[in-house]
Design a protein that fits this description.
Order of helices and strands: EHEHHEEHEHEEHEHHHHHEHEHEHHEE
Shape: elongated
Largest sheet: 6 strands, parallel
Number of helices: 15
Helix content: 25-40%
Length: 427
């Protein structure tokens, strides 16, 4: 019943964001693949050769000759292998929100046939594929798991904005609901992953491997963020300390800063949710999350103190925030922690201008109610915060940041990308 020839499988990628589109393009270069998304304007743009996420170049879209697009769920019936790459966000209460994942499972369930394979790539807690998604597939389709249809899990490892580590260059973890399916899933991805694959022992192992990748990064960043707070009180340059410590071969090169986005700032909550569900209170992980979540308010507290020392009336001040996206050279605004800085400044009565060459002004307005400035004003600000190290900012003469401010203004280089004497504060 299960066709184990990877070359004869008819693939559909469900969800064409930062993860799904590069995957669909990679498969589309070697054979037929359907790219499915419920966002009709997104599909129209992709058909026109335009990727708003900037993850795929127009020439790569053209090269993916086997790739077609659809918003019609009925078109999925033509396929037998469904790869789910939808977002897995958290709620306002920092609980996992599986709504997109379960909705995608329902959509697939309506067209699921005997012999079909469903592979999930979305980041989840261990057990979510078999305990949450598979029951939806069974209920909607009326088919039996591991009898009529099968499942796999292969966690995404896309790094938005990274033009060096592309999908084919990153080792792919694979898994399947039976040994035979695991071999098939591994063979499917091996067709497009030049860096090789790692076949995990089970779906739960693969799920756990993914969620701890970002949890580990979150904790390491929390450590250096706390070190920055400590060294700040001791009037020690954190960047200088990290450069000195980095001369040892096994010192990990993490940097302090804001931790946002849809991965590192979100995924640990999936693991802590499951940990608490099985009776363990994850103290270290949650402590790291709390510290990273308050970095925006810490940045503002340091800025406000320095402004006050400079004789600036904080309540009447005007501050320029440079960068809004969650990371450099990327247009993604989801879960950006720069917004914490903006809101905290506004709570002091500060007037805030926000500039970002990568952010979509319409998206900034819709998501956060912010009107981005086209160009910062010369000599207009009491404070300048370099929040995101976009390449456009790094190309500027360091003196340019100072020129945006008034005579006694404060320049805060959160990313420590300016020369030390070009800023007043940095993490």
């Amino acid at each position: 019943m299960l066709d184990t020839n990877p070359k004869s499988r008819k693939i559909a990628v469900i969800g064409l964001g930062y993860v799904g589109l590069p995957l669909a393009v990679a498969f589309g270069k070697i054979g037929p693949v359907m790219g499915f998304d419920i966002n009709a304007p997104r599909i129209d743009a992709l058909r026109a050769g335009e990727d708003a996420t900037l993850e795929v170049e127009p020439e790569d879209l053209i090269a993916a000759k086997g790739l077609t697009f659809s918003t019609e769920a009925t078109d999925l019936a033509e396929c037998d292998t469904y790869i789910v790459t939808v977002p897995t966000p958290i709620t306002a209460g920092r609980q996992p929100d599986l709504t997109p994942l379960l909705s995608a499972s329902e959509t697939i369930g309506r067209v699921l046939k005997p012999g079909d394979l469903v592979i999930y790539e979305s980041t989840v807690y261990p057990g979510a594929t078999e305990e949450d998604c598979v029951p939806v597939l069974e209920q909607v389709s009326g088919l039996r798991f591991n009898k009529d249809f099968f499942a796999g899990y292969s966690p995404e490892r896309i790094n938005p904005g990274d033009k060096t580590h592309r999908i084919s260059d990153i080792c792919k973890v694979t898994s399947g609901s039976t040994p035979e399916v695991a071999d098939l899933v591994d063979a499917l991805y091996a067709q497009i992953i030049s860096a090789g694959t790692h076949k995990a022992e089970s779906i739960r192992v693969a799920e756990a491997a993914k969620v701890i990748e970002n949890t580990q990064r979150d904790l390491n960043i929390a450590l250096v963020n706390e070190l920055a707070m400590i060294f700040g009180r001791m009037d020690i340059d954190t960047d200088a300390v990290l450069r000195a410590a980095g001369t040892k071969w096994n010192f990990l090169p993490f940097r302090p800063g804001l931790v946002g986005g849809h991965c590192i700032g979100v995924d640990p909550y999936y693991l802590t949710y499951k940990a608490e569900a099985v009776g363990h209170h994850p103290q270290i992980i949650l402590a790291g999350r709390r510290l990273n979540d308050r970095m925006g308010s810490y940045v503002v507290s340091q800025l406000v103190k320095q402004m006050a020392r400079n004789g600036i009336n904080v309540g009447a001040a005007r501050v320029l925030v440079m960068g809004l996206t969650f990371k450099e050279n990327c247009p993604d605004l989801r879960n950006t922690r720069v917004i914490d800085i903006i809101k905290e400044l506004q709570s002091y009565g500060v007037s805030v201008d926000v500039h970002d060459p990568h952010a979509d002004p319409k998206a900034a307005e819709a998501e956060y109610g912010l009107s981005l400035v086209d160009q910062p004003h010369q000599g207009a600000y009491d404070g300048v915060v370099l929040a995101v190290a976009h390449q456009e900012y790094q190309r500027l003469d360091p003196a340019q940041f100072r020129s945006y401010g008034k005579e006694n203004s404060v320049v805060f280089d959160i990313k420590s990308c300016l020369p030390r004497n070009a800023s007043d504060l940095r993490l």
